[in-house]
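note to self: dont lose this again. the chain is below, predicted strucutre after it. 441 aa total, dont forget to put it in the shared folder this time
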Amino acid sequence: MARAVFRCIEGCDGEIPLSAPTYRCPTCGGLLDVVHDLDVLKQKSAAEWKALFDQRYKRTTWPYGSGVWGKKEWVAPDVPDELVVSLDEGGTNLFWAERLGRELGMGELWVKLCGNSHTGSFKDLGMTVLVSVVRHAMRDHGLRVRAIACASTGDTSASLAAYGATAGIPVVVLLPRGKVSTAQLVQPLANGALVLALDTDFDGCMAVVQRLAQEQIVYLANSMNGLRLEGQKTVAIEIVQQFDWEVPDWIVLPSGNLGNASALFKGFSMLKELGLTDRLPRLAVAQAERANPMVRALQNHERVVTPMKAGTTLASAIQIGAPVSAPRAMRALEAMNGVALDATEDELADAAARADRTGMYCDPHTGVALACLFKLRANGTIGAKDRVVVVSTASGLKFTEFKVGYHDGTLPSVDAKRRNTAVELPADFDRVVEAITTRMA
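---
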């Protein structure tokens, strides 16, 4: 029978059940990852796994129609079906960015629209696993939880609040006051979470919530908890599935706390280890220039990411200077022959606007990834024939202030070369014709 446990990423002996509220190795203090019994999973052939996953994909048999729980044996096999907390996450569009790719001289550019999810971001993929495991631990393993809590720059709090409300488990979220969008703030409020807006940045909120977890006041839901990564790794599996079980050449990923880099590596690695694929893609970690500790580490040829004070960036969800999953992400980059690069405020805003002109509606974090893609294509690192997937982590609809500010020309440090404003006219036919003629000439 498939099983999974926590083990230390530094190789310390021992294993910890997933039901235990433990977030770091009790021996060395290192991060914990969920580890699966691959020998058991190998009892089913690669062809059988592909057939099973394809049979379940986006169907209505509970809970396997979820893009996450359709891979349940590879994620959290011990959770009973009736305790799964799912909002039909995953199964998101792999968008062929044909026009933008053509402009870049690329044959295949795709954008994985993870923001097409219940709360509008990829965070749902990890939160369904975490909340389901907590619910299982509460019923069957004696776990007592006053609340599940997270520090957040917006998307994590929205996701946790929704899944907590669905499960009937109280939620506490810590946000940096004045540093999240209105749409992101109202989501946890609407779902009934206790929202604490602290006079600090994300890293300050993270320090507080970690102490709350250490003193067992709350259960920690941030991505240092390896359960989150188990759901997020299904993005990698789903991308390959959508390509008829072929691996793309590149993944370009906007990155803040760096959990997603590790999660995608886990997904691609499981596919390879279980024989469904024969290689890993290359990984590009894309950061905002004002919050780029991974980029700085690689520029200095360092294997350890040194925390920095993150500056204010339009890409607020990745405005993180002390990423807790940095050790995991560094290993992912090395294994996937990866690179890390950054984008200025003007570059990320222009990249988002350029993509929007080809039919997308990009959040600023996808703008970071696209700006870095443009650089990698320009310097030849990414070739004309490479199949590239940019991971879009959130819906642009959650960042209306960013869009309005760009087209109003009011974003700081942004030139807004592609701004577009409404033309105000009287209700006069001739004036309307004149405006159309002028624009379409």
